[in-house]
Design brief:
With 200 residues, the chain is mainly α. It is built from 7 helices and no strands. It binds heme C.
């Protein structure tokens, strides 16, 4: 059945011959593609290997990675005893503004804008942080906040590599302001600021 030439790569072949050739090519190429696809799966991930600290009798300490030397500190961490008890710089309005900005970037997602622990991440299932307004944290020294930002605590990871030291103190100052804002008394109102009679 000569139906005339086909356009494209099979030009000059009859329709039937072209179709047969295409089928033969497909049959030949299919296993090649399958083999290629299987080859892709043989990544380094699936090869035999030791995961960190997996038991390894050949290693000097019996584990695939060397154990940490006692007293070793993670990069950027600061031992608690080296942190000053109180904010070591003057608490100025510009420090508070810087702290507010950094707090908004790094802490609000979990701790919430007022520090009560009701950020957006806990709403999506991340473990809820404690409120800064609980008594334990109201009476904790400034150092404690600096230490938690620097080294992390339990489920909260460390921010030492993202928040430089001066910014950590700025954040601590701002957290102090948040705590005070929720426990303010009339005596905290600066002189000269009137309070309307009707409380509005
Ligand atoms: C991804 C969520 C997340 C972010 C972001 C986060 N935290 Fe936390 N934070 C937590 C969780 C969870 C805890 C509770 C940790 C625990 O005890 O398991 C916590 C606990 C704390 C505590 C209380 C520690 C105590 O003694 O109970 C402080 C203070 C704190 N965070 C400060 C900060 C500051 C400051 C920032 C921003 C630099 C920040 N956190 C960012 C999740 C977060």
């Amino acid at each position: 059945m000569a139906v005339g030439g086909q356009p494209g790569p099979f030009r000059g072949l009859s329709y039937v011959a072209g179709a047969q050739l295409a089928r033969a090519l497909a049959a030949w190429l299919a296993p090649c593609f399958a083999a290629l696809a299987m080859g892709c799966d043989q990544s380094m991930y699936t090869q035999p290997k030791l995961t960190p600290y997996a038991p390894d009798p050949r290693a000097p300490q019996g584990t695939s990675a060397r154990l940490l030397v006692p007293g070793v500190q993670p990069h950027g961490s600061v031992p608690a005893e080296q942190i000053p008890e109180s904010i070591p710089v003057p608490v100025t309005m510009s420090l508070l503004k810087r702290g507010q900005e950094r707090y908004g970037i790094f802490c609000v997602p979990c701790h919430g804008p007022v520090g009560n622990g009701e950020g957006i991440l806990p709403a999506y299932g991340f473990p809820s942080p404690p409120s800064y307004l609980k008594q334990e944290l109201l009476s904790a020294p400034d150092r404690h906040f600096f230490q938690v930002i620097t080294n992390g605590k339990d489920k909260m990871y460390a921010y030492a590599d993202r928040v430089p030291r001066p910014d950590r103190w700025a954040i601590v100052a701002y957290i102090r302001a948040l705590q005070r804002s929720q426990h303010a008394s009339l005596a905290d109102v600066p002189p000269g600021i009137g309070i309307p009679e009707n409380g509005q």
